[in-house]
Design brief:
Heat Shock Protein 90; five-stranded mixed sheet; Ribosomal Protein S5, domain 2; single chain; alpha+beta; mismatched DNA binding; ATP hydrolysis activity; Ribosomal_Su5_D2-typ_SF; eight-stranded mixed sheet; 22 strands; Ribosomal Protein S8, Chain: A, domain 1; 3 domains
């Protein structure tokens, strides 16, 4: 009887290994750039075609390899980084397992050109499915160029699981950003389908952040520094007024290696408590330098998870350093000690009485009453019952006919609910959700040919993150339909000169950021139309919020428009809008 257990052939075992190392094109980008960094390159160029499915090319000016090393580099567990088991606990290089090139070559066509400084000719190697198809001397520059073509050509199931080009490009861009942030002493160039995306010179960390995330960050960054025996902390955090609704710009680096660690990230978030709203998060770019013996990076194929010997100490130091930076720089920068404290005054003449300053005030002004930021107007109740052929909400009968009189009573409860009545029922309406439904119906049924907009008195430029910039460029045609006048500028910013009539310039900026965030929470290329997502985002942002005190006329307008909407019971986000109390329920309460 034949043996049931067999040794897998190299081509299959390499494909299995590739499944851990190469999950998508961005994984290849990461491995190749890390190899270039370990080769002591001072300039690295990344070329991408068709989101990495057709071509991923990394060119560096590092040390290069001789012919023998070039061939061995495609073997599994072939590495120049470690020689003994002890070396695993003193790692200073990016790669060390020797699996990357073997894994990549197992699922793609790979071409390598490499040359050392003291060689007259370099070496050209062509691999296909871990088989060397060609090896020949070649004239080339010092360093290494690796081209990965037709990724997953022999694993069609893996290729079919790849996302759309915009999504894969975003993953590649994010990998590029992570690597470029921590290696600011290296120049980088990034081309996508022949278009220059980034050209980064050798520079300090702050300049690198500004080049990657936009000029606006020049005024937003606060330095963070601390050093004890266990760890040295350096980098930048963001000013409290510039926090975001997501954690997309939170970057930790440990010994020049990107790391994910929600526990340590919480130490920075916690330092902002009391300064920012709930569910908002600060951006940060923080380097941690530790003794390699006190960390373990060999726990995950992507090497983005790191174990610490004592992460509680690091947490405490990070928290203290962030609090110190926020307290020191946000307070001092607001105080101007350069002003002359002396002032001029006119002395009184003998016998002249001083006159008290006169102050005009409005006795009805309430400083604690917050104005709404939107300009949405709700018509008077008597204007909203015109028959427009819309299906009216029917809990029992139509809203219009069930009112006890032509001017129904409305009251507001806790600045959150509108309470009104029909002949036989009491209706409790969530004012924010009702407003969302009204606005969503308006925006989703707009006739784009008749859309109106308002020119901004002070047009402004806004920078988005690289990932969001790519997405926003694709969304521009849809966004413009709603009345936005927005153009992409050469410096990487977006110039906003006009907005829909319903919003102001502050709303416009936040709506664009919210839209990009919501798209990333789900799927940037999901089947639902982008126009629907824009309508949802605008409705959410411009709706009347809980806590807003309303006048009777406003409440009547909301109630009337709600009952003429497409679905007055459910908000566009699937939440309940109305709760009905009938006479029987009320009687039962009192037994």
């Amino acid at each position: 009887m034949p043996n049931l257990i067999q040794i897998l052939p190299p081509n299959i075992s390499n494909q299995i290994a590739a499944g851990e190392v190469v999950q998508r094109p961005a994984s290849v980008v990461k491995e190749l750039i890390e190899n270039a960094i370990d080769a002591k390159a001072t300039h690295i160029q990344l070329n991408i075609k068709d989101a990495g499915k057709t071509l991923i090319q990394v060119i560096d000016n590092g040390t290069g390899m001789n012919e023998e090393d070039a061939l061995i580099s495609f073997e599994r567990h072939a590495t120049s980084k470690i020689k003994t088991s002890e070396d695993l606990f003193h790692l200073t290089t990016m790669g060390f397992r020797g699996e990357a090139l073997a894994s990549i070559a197992a699922i793609a066509h790979v071409e390598m050109k490499t040359k050392q400084e003291n060689q007259e000719l370099g070496t050209f190697v062509e691999m296909e499915g871990n088989v060397c198809k060609n090896k020949t001397p070649i004239a080339c520059e010092k360093g290494t160029s690796i081209s990965v073509k037709n990724l997953f050509y022999n694993v069609p199931a893996r290729r079919n699981f790849l996302k759309t080009d915009p999504i894969e490009n975003n993953h590649i861009l994010e990998e590029f950003i992570r690597t470029a942030l921590i290696n600011n002493d290296i120049a980088f160039t990034y081309y996508n389908n022949g278009k220059l995306i980034h050209k980064l010179d050798k520079q300090n960390l702050k300049k690198r952040i500004i080049d990657l995330f936009g000029k606006a960050y020049n005024e937003r960054l606060l330095p963070i520094e601390e050093e004890i025996d266990a760890v040295k902390i350096s980098g930048f955090i963001i000013k409290a007024e510039y926090v975001k609704k997501n954690k997309s710009e939170q970057y930790f680096f440990v010994n020049n290696r990107y790391m994910r660690n929600s526990y340590l990230a919480n130490s920075i978030d916690r330092a902002y408590q009391g300064m920012i709203q709930e569910k908002t998060y600060p951006a940060f770019f923080i380097h941690l330098n530790l003794n390699p013996e006190n960390i373990d990076v060999n726990i995950h194929p992507t090497k983005t998870e790191i174990k610490f010997l004592d992460d509680k100490v690091i947490y405490a130091v990070l928290y203290a350093a962030a609090k110190k930076s926020l307290g020191q720089f946000t307070l001092i920068n607001q105080l101007d000690f350069s002003l002359d404290s002396s002032f001029e005054f006119t002395p009184l003449k003998k016998g002249e009485m001083p006159t008290m300053p006169r102050t005009n005030f409005n006795p009805d002004y309430n400083p604690f009453e917050k104005e709404t930021t939107n300009k949405i107007s709700y018509p008077k109740q008597e204007d909203i019952f015109e028959d427009k052929g819309v299906n009216i909400f029917t809990i029992e009968e139509s809203f219009k006919t069930n009112y006890s009189n032509n001017n129904p009573e409305v009251i507001q409860f806790l600045n959150k609910y509108i309470i009104t009545k029909t002949k036989n029922n009491i209706l409790i309406i969530n004012q924010e959700r009702a407003s969302q439904r009204i606005l969503y119906d308006k925006f989703s049924s707009m006739d784009f040919a008749d859309i109106s907009c308002q020119q901004l008195l002070f047009p402004y430029n806004h920078f988005f993150s690289p990932t969001h910039t790519t997405q926003l460029l694709e969304l521009l045609p849809d966004i413009r339909k709603y009345g936005f006048a927005i153009e992409y500028q050469k410096d990487g910013s977006f110039n906003i000169t006009a907005t829909p009539n319903e919003m102001n310039s502050d709303d416009a900026q936040i709506i664009l950021e919210d839209l990009l965030f919501e798209l990333n929470q789900t799927n940037f290329n999901s089947p639902s139309p982008k126009s629907q997502k824009i309508a949802l985002t605008m409705a959410k942002r411009l709706s009347i919020k809980e806590g807003k005190q309303l006048q009777d006329e406003e409440m009547l307008g909301i109630v009337g428009q709600l009952f003429s909407s497409s679905s007055c019971e459910i908000s566009p986000f699937g939440k309940k809008i109305i709760h009905k109390l009938d006479m029987e329920e009320i009687d039962n309460i009192f037994g």
